[in-house]
Design goal:
The chain has 397 residues and is mostly beta strands. Helices cover 0% and strands 47% of the residues. A four-stranded antiparallel sheet has the order 3-34-33-32, with no helix packed on it. A four-stranded antiparallel sheet has the order 4-5-6-7, with no helix packed on it. A four-stranded antiparallel sheet has the order 8-9-12-13, with no helix packed on it. The protein is globular and about 55 Å long.
Amino acid sequence: MLTFVIVLCQGVLLGAVSTPLEQWQELKSPQAPVERYAHTANWDPVKQRLLLVGGWKKGYQGGGVLGDTWAFDPKTDQWEKLKSTLRPRHAHTATWDPVKNRLMVVGGLGQGGMLKDAWAFDPKTDEWQELKSTKDLPYWHGHTATWDPVKGRLLVVGGEGGSGTWALDPNTGEWREINSSKSPSARRGHTATWDPVKGRLLVVGGAVGSTSLQDSWAFDPKTDEWQEIKSLKNPPPIYCPEATWDPFNQRLIVMGFNHELLGKTKKLSHETWALDPKTDQWEEIKSAKMPPVRSGYQLVWDLVNKRLILAQGSGPRGSCKDSWSFDPKTDQWDELKSAVSPPARSHYTATWDPVKSRIIMFGGWGTTTSVKDTWALNPIGIIPTPTEGIAPEKPAP
């Protein structure tokens, strides 16, 4: 919350003294993307802006798949609809290619089902281009796409439409299926996170059919080989967990719960686990407080206060409204207190804004339909401008 003290001198307004307290702030723009969920939002380091792509509009009935692209300017807090479009989709992946400075979108769900294509967005021209391949690519949904900084390529793992590991060479635009002597079983809804300590890709959990998985794998880009991680302890079988690299303790943090226990027990636990890359051992993080069970959220690092932020999500009784912070120094969770909070939602996007050092949230699935509002979480010590970005709201063109 931001507290203002108005200073008057003989009836003349001299200014306002503000106390920097943590708060959510809604950002309003004359133009804004239509309501949606299962979209993507990536930071564009070339033009210092947020790029929003695709998604599903409204509910399952009467809605539609979107192929539009929007840019959010953090300096003005305004949205702009870009002219170029790609094949409509939702539940796709979007990954930044630092070699050619472009956004790479792979797969997802279209109007007619799963997609097997890849697109590249050039921020210099604001144009999309389909990357056509000579290979017969698998359909990708529930897959992961991660940048490999060792070989400068995009790695796509798993997915509902197929199994295996694929690599996209940004220089040639060609795909190559990687055949390893050992590899993870076919899966969807897993996590894939780059480990900068050992220079490898870490894959955790997911599901095959209706069975959640409990295994962890490491991919070595130097040899193009997979190796299963054998730990004395392991996270529970997790479908659609959330994972992030802890840059302060140099470890992998994974959150989630066993979806197979939904409706079968009243003691459903929402657990936090950490993998030490030096020993390849998992350890459960015990916190005095824990966010209630949920899915459909994102984990974003607050780089100002060196903590992890979890906002909202979908719980057993519907969408959640609360937000939580995790302190990597103490390994403790604590609920965030804000005078104003975004309405309950899940399957939104949350992205760190390095220009104003804040987290930008957009859209998602509300209580009964998708939503289209934009919010900023201003960390402690960052003073938001009360009137910044506020303008009369009108429908997008």
